[in-house]
Specification:
Blueprint lengths: L3 H4 L7 H9 L2 H18 L3 E11 L25 H13 L4 E6 L5 H17 L5 E5 L5 H9 L4 E3 L7 H7 L6 H14 L2 E4 L2 E2 L6 H14 L3 E6 L18 H18 L4 E4 L1 H6 L3 H7 L4 E2 L6 H4 L15 H14 L3 E2 L8 H8 L1
Parallel strand pairs: 1-2, 1-9, 1-10, 2-3, 3-4, 4-5, 5-7, 6-7, 7-8
Helix pairs in contact: 2-9, 2-10, 3-10, 4-5, 6-8
The chain binds 5'-deoxyadenosine (5AD) and FE2/S2 (inorganic) cluster.
């Protein structure tokens, strides 16, 4: 077995190296966290960028076995923000210098949905003097639709692969959901020219450390610009809840997520990495811990307060009783604790994207 200090001197890591880092404890773990922190400061700096997250609808046609708002969950109170509500949330983000928005919703595929997003993009650009950046996170769509939205001003897209192991993917989704289509969508997004983001869940039933090492290699190989990954948190109204007693303890899912973020920062030094809200659901300072060791993006929820409870992908979601105004001061204070500055009014684009596309 190699010494962790020797692995960290390498330019690239083998799968065995990644497994060793993921399993490291004590001084070894502290050493690579420190290296990741240094790499972050050197390559992307001290600034953390905000993406105001608008969860504009929880209506979803998909039935993923892990997700609380899956189509078959009859206990969910379904909502769909009006266009006016979305635009006021966008104005809030603009006024408060968030720089960018993420429009996220359950997955729907229809021409009405495509038209609606296109219209919203035009309107958001208009009310913000073309200044707000917009990231979309609305699932698998046709290449044509992705292109339309890109033309209307969306320039980043988040679509998690969830796991890079196609066999595991099958166990997490019904048979009409397809790993190859998910991959194809990611390729389309990259081809069109989006800054392309993906990610995985950590600590899923049946998932191994070897799978997680493969996930890291997948992100590197795919040459992603942005990553958001978080711990899996079981939801009692989903099929995967049946495996709750076989999951890694929640603290281990949390710690492994931090390790994944730190390793990814060492592997892909100039990408954007989000501190997932699911980390905060486990530890109130979870996102700040992620920021310290490698993440540089936070997505404060700016969905109007009265809808927040109903976008429960997992249980114990934090801040569901807050209004967007309350999150502002809270985040300032929290990031100061994490030794970071906030990149107000900046898009905070992925540096990796510009390097990748200029070469
Ligand atoms: N635990 C953690 N993350 C989840 N997601 C969905 N359900 C859960 C859960 N139970 C994540 C998925 C999805 C993103 C929007 O939320 O990775 O892509
Ligand atoms: Fe939402 Fe603190 S981040 S209340």
């Amino acid at each position: 077995m190699k010494l962790v200090s020797n692995i960290l001197k390498q330019e690239t890591y083998s799968k065995a190296d990644l497994i060793q880092l993921l399993e490291s404890k004590g001084d070894d773990r502290a050493l690579f966290f420190k290296k990741a922190q240094e790499a972050k400061l050197k390559y992307v700096g001290k600034n953390v960028f905000f993406r105001g997250l608008i969860e504009f609808s929880n209506i979803c046609s998909k039935d993923c076995y892990y997700c609380g708002i899956r189509n078959s969950n009859a206990n969910v109170k379904r909502y769909n923000l009006t266009d006016d509500e979305i635009i006021s949330a966008a104005k809030f983000a603009y006024k408060n210098k968030y720089g960018s928005l993420v429009l996220q919703a359950g997955e729907l595929v229809s021409s009405a949905f495509s038209d609606r997003i296109e219209k919203l993009l035009n309107e958001i650009k208009k009310v913000s003097n073309n200044e707000l950046g917009v990231t979309l996170s609305v699932g698998e769509q046709s290449e044509e639709t992705y292109q339309r939205w890109f033309n209307a001003g969306a320039h980043r897209f988040l679509l998690r692969i969830e796991t890079s192991n196609s066999e595991l993917y099958k166990k997490l989704h019904p048979s009409d959901h397809s790993f190859s289509n998910r991959l194809q969508c990611l390729k389309s997004l990259q081809k069109i020219g989006y800054q392309t983001g993906t990610g995985v869940m950590i600590g899923l039933p049946f998932q191994t450390i070897s799978d997680l090492a493969d996930d890291l290699l997948f992100m590197k190989e795919f040459d992603v610009d942005m990553v958001g990954m978080g711990p899996f948190i079981e939801h009692s109204e989903t099929p995967l809840y049946a495996y709750k007693d076989e999951l890694w303890p929640i603290e281990e899912r949390f710690d492994t997520t931090l390790k994944m973020i730190a390793i990814l920062r060492l592997m892909m030094k100039d990408i954007n990495i989000a501190a997932a809200t699911a980390l905060q659901a486990i530890d109130p300072l979870g996102r700040e811990k992620a920021i310290r060791i490698g993440a540089n993006i936070i997505m404060p929820n700016i969905t109007p307060g009265f809808y927040r409870n109903d976008y429960a992908l997992y249980q114990n979601k934090p801040c569901v009783d807050e209004e967007p105004e309350q999150c502002m001061g809270c985040l300032d204070a929290r990031l100061a604790l994490a030794d970071s500055d906030i990149g107000y009014s900046e898009w905070g684009d992925s540096k990796h994207f510009f390097l990748r596309t200029s070469s």
